[in-house]
Amino acid sequence: MFPPPCVVMSLAMPRYALKIEYHGAPFVGWQRQTAQTSVQGQIEAALAKLEAGPHTIAAAGRTDAGVHAWGQVAHCDLKKDWDPFKLTGALNFHLKPDPISIVGCVAVDDDWHARFSAVERRYEFRLLMRRAPATHDAGLVWQVPRLLDVEAMQEGAKHLIGHHDFTTFRSSICQALSPVKTLDELIVRQIDGPSGPEVRFTVRARSFLHNQVRSFVGTLECVGSGDWEPDDVRTALEAKERRACGTVSPPQGLYLAHVRYPQDVFADAV
């Protein structure tokens, strides 16, 4: 008599979606790097204090050095079935004193992916128009010492909306397979910020090229300062050459603000 066949059962590890806020100044960016401090590395180190690792988390987007987040999303797989409220508290405890905070946590299906399940990313950029050095907002805004023509900037921004080859606004080290993307929204408006008048840029798309948003902002600043005409943005776009891009803005005014999924995964998050 033959022995009964062996039954192999696959037990999936519990998966958790994390909504993350961070100040990007102390970090080399999101992505883990050897011997350098990254946001991903610090969160994985905190996870290792809760459960033996190694841990590898995946994020909705890889922000560069100095870029901030209000709504970054990542997922992690753990062995223990954690209560999301307790997992949030434990991670925040072990992340101190790093300027990283887990502001939402929820259990998700094991095929849910922070990057590949996302259908839209929204970035916000803060540009402060003020001569005196920023104090409270230092490191959180791009500061220019003059008022900009916001209406002209919005007129220039209209040329970027839609489905285009964005080679001009793509970093030379961008690893995306294609420079063709669809930009859903680029709103430029002036607001009264806590430190003075700000230009706020809201940019939405399913995905972005490396340095695409910062290239947009820097180019539109050229329009606002009078160095470019609004139609020069269209000329730069149609050139499909990186050297046609205007100034690339510094990173400190950029925030990953929101990541959207087919269903609001954080609707009941703790």
TrEMBL record:
Broad class of enzyme this protein falls into: isomerase
Protein task: Formation of pseudouridine at positions 38, 39 and 40 in the anticodon stem and loop of transfer RNAs.
Gene3D superfamilies on file: Pseudouridine synthase I, catalytic domain, C-terminal subdomain, Pseudouridine synthase I, catalytic domain, N-terminal subdomain
Active-site residues annotated for this sequence: 64
Annotated Pseudouridine synthase I TruA alpha/beta domain residues: 21-116, 157-262
Gene: truA
A single GO molecular function term of this UniProt record: RNA binding
Name of the protein in its database record: tRNA pseudouridine synthase A
CDD domains hit by this protein: PseudoU_synth_EcTruA (cd02570)
InterPro entries: PsdUridine_synth_cat_dom_sf, PsdUridine_synth_TruA, PsdUridine_synth_TruA_a/b_dom, PsdUridine_synth_TruA_C, TruA/RsuA/RluB/E/F_N
Family: Belongs to the tRNA pseudouridine synthase TruA family.
UniProt keyword list: Isomerase, tRNA processing
NCBIfam families per UniProt: hisT_truA (TIGR00071)
EC number(s) stated in the UniProt entry for this protein: 5.4.99.12
Binding site for substrate: 123
Quaternary context: Homodimer.
Catalytic reaction annotation: uridine(38/39/40) in tRNA = pseudouridine(38/39/40) in tRNA
